Amino acid sequence: MSKQTPDNCTACTTCTAYCPISKATRNFRGPKMTGPAFERFRYLHKGEEDALSYCSNCKNCDIACPNGVPISVFNMLAKAETSQGLRLFARDYIVAHGDLFYSFLRYFPSFLVNFGMLNPLTRIFLDRIGVARRAALPAFCDKPFLKRLNAVKQPQTDEKVIFFPGCYVNMYDPEAGLALVKLLNRLNVEVVAPEGLVCCGVPLISSGFYKECKKNAEKNLKILSKYRGAPIITVCPSCALMIKHDYAELFPEIAAKDIKIVDPSEFILEHQNLKNLEFEEESRKLSYHSPCHQRALGIGKPALELMKLLPSTAVCDLDAGCCGISGSYGFKKEKYRISLSVGKNLFDSLKAADTELALTECGTCKVQITANTRIKTVHPLSLLAERLI
Fold first, then answer.
1. CB neighbours of 303 closer than 8 A, spacing ≥ 6?
2. What is the number of structural domains in the chain?
3. Element (H or E) spanning 378, and its range?
4. Which CATH number fits the domain that encloses residue 300?
């Protein structure tokens, strides 16, 4: 297992000031203490900090750190070395292996699977093993993205991009992936989704499954390395951050440095055929939420810039902080109320904006926002594809 050095941490506590979890609960002692400070005790095998499990891996500490210390990496690696405990192992295994369970569930009609997930008896069982009964769970799609992509007739062109769909798009929101395909095809770009790609590993590492996360990283990098030089695009910021940055931090011995991850909105904005995109006029009140992992990529808010292409449309940049879901964090029973507390400022900002539609790139952010505001939330690319002339 790789190790990072905590020596660059100057104990300035900037990370704690920007940590949404520290503000929401006293059970978490803050990223400085659970990360670099306690890392020195780990070197001496002096025990483990119980508060570590409250880290949501939202990356706000990494964004805030003036010295570039990978604080979240300390926490994720430490989680992997900490005993999960039998009581929560089943729950953590379920939320970390959604793709595995979907491989079985996809043989059943999606409406039956989703009804079964919402069934009170199912929710009671899930609550007993640690999945919050009131947490809104994403609904499985009728047909996975990869199967739907095969039915799309794309332009035969020399310009190609490699698409990493990720679990969320493939299992829950294929429309976001198909929206990207529609937009890129209009730019005369072919979208290729290689076979064999697996979950990027964010759910795995967040719940402490380091070895499985590394295996997934090895599989993905082996496939993606075949496309050296070609832009690799994903519509999920967490997948992009994992492949672009976290693989190198967590698994430096296997990380491939020549993989080119490109944000889809950036790619579209900078494309020479951008003029090919024309959109219908429609006056609506829209609000945009930038996910934590999108901000951690350090590329600004290209989706917000892209939305300016929509005529007669104004988009409010909420800039209201973390939604609180942090992937599977908000589904966990002991973290559910914390996640709501973290997201309260965002929910209140959305309601105050009197918005008709919310936009965000993160799939679980969409689930969290819609569940707590009753405002429909979609990927920005989905809206663009819908209004494409």
1. 265, 288, 290, 294, 359, 361, 380, 381
2. 2
3. strand 377-378
4. 3.40.50
